[in-house]
Amino acid sequence: MEKKNAWEKYQGEKQQEVFAFGEAYKKFLSDCKTERECVTELKAQAEAAGFADLKKVLAEGTPIKTGDKLYADNMGKGLALFVIGREPMEKGMNILGAHIDSPRLDIKQNPLYEDTQMALLDTHYYGGVKKYQWVAMPLALHGVIVKKDGTVVNVSIGEKEEDPVFGVSDLLIHLSGEQMDKKASKVIEGENLDVLVGSMPQFPTEEEKEKAKDLVKANILTILKEQYQVEEEDFLSAEIEVVPAGKARDYGLDRSMIMGYGHDDRVCAYPSFAAVLEAGVCDKTTVCLLVDKEEIGSVGATGMQSKFFEYMVVELMEAMGQYSRVAFNRAMTNSRVLSSDVSAAFDPLFPSVMEKKNSAYFGKGLVFNKFTGSRGKGGSNDANPEYMALLRRIMDDNDVSFQTAELGKVDQGGGGTIAYILANYHMQVIDSGVAVLNMHAPWEIISKVDLYEAKRGYVAFLKEA
Question: What pLDDT does 451 receive?
């Protein structure tokens, strides 16, 4: 079955719709390189669009009614948005679920050290990465340092033109004979992904010179103290992520693509958020659920496996006088979900790992993955064909370009999403998202028209599922 290229629908002025949405997404991707930054930005946009803080509404006892727009913040690292529908919640919700964490390097709790008059930060990589891709490139530091008195110091260094950048060094080609003979997984070891942050010593007084040591580290600590008012011990309660430095950019002479850090999975999170705003009030309550920790198993209080979403639904139903255990169970089992996560785009340079009839392609629109998992569908949510048939009709009725895919050939590997966790509530769930080249590399690539079709498809789903 040959699918038409979605660009064919966008000629002349109509093409500007695609590019305009791409520009808004590029700004979001450039500004929001951590889950905390995503939540902060999207909360601000939601409030500007009329959304109110659910926890504040509940605390004040404000009645909740059809058409109300509410958000719930999960520890600054996850976000749930609700638009209350015309039908009681026990009829079910239409949910778009995506994750906002991405592979990266995390700074350890006791990170700063000096070796041969170089100051470095020790790291622990996060998520599935090819470690060799993270060396010899400009990196930035993003995150928070929380002091003992509760003061939060926001960190973002390496993005402004006048900022310094950081990096992980690599072995020069002239001396890399042994290194080049290693397996790719061993070329760069995890413990060697330390970030170089300084090489200039602090100049002691003559009296201090004989006793002085680690003067480069001391100089870095002085800079941290002067510019951020933090001490070395404050790293104990810090959350600093090392990410590629620089903005998302147009990719290709035709500017049809976007290169950026964190497409997985912000290329699905952003159109999911935009779709909830655009869809307005629907028959069913609509939800955009943005979670953390998917790249490491959806664990923890901010991951999809936490009870946060369940608790917020219970709070909503209770506030509207609709809660009972039976009504809650019905609300969950009657819900329909698009687990909005990326797919692997077919790469003509690496055709051997893909099966062409069941691959995702740039320009063919929103991707549906009936199942993910690995090899024998291990760990996957396998969607029902009845649900897929409903989605086919919705997409066709709304002229949304879509395609279906698997994650490579059967025995090549695989991956998972949050789909199976929501399916545990007896919901109808399927994975859907945008095709990505270079997935999990520091710089990933997507097609602008696929991004736009994802948003259009998500809007159609919220209104009609």
Answer: 98
pLDDT at residue 207, as a whole number: 64
Q: What is the overall mean pLDDT for the chain?
A: 94
The residues with which 336 forms a beta bridge, in sequence order, are: 94, 428
pLDDT, tens digit, 9 for 90 and up, residues 129-164: 999 999 999 999 999 999 999 999 999 999 999 999
Evaluate whether 256 touches 8 at the Cβ level (below 8 Å). no
pLDDT band at 323 (very low <50, low <70, confident <90, very high): very high
Domains of the chain: 6-102+261-464 (3.40.630.10), 104-244 (2.30.250.10)
pLDDT of 210 strictly over 70:
no
pTM given for the model:
0.95
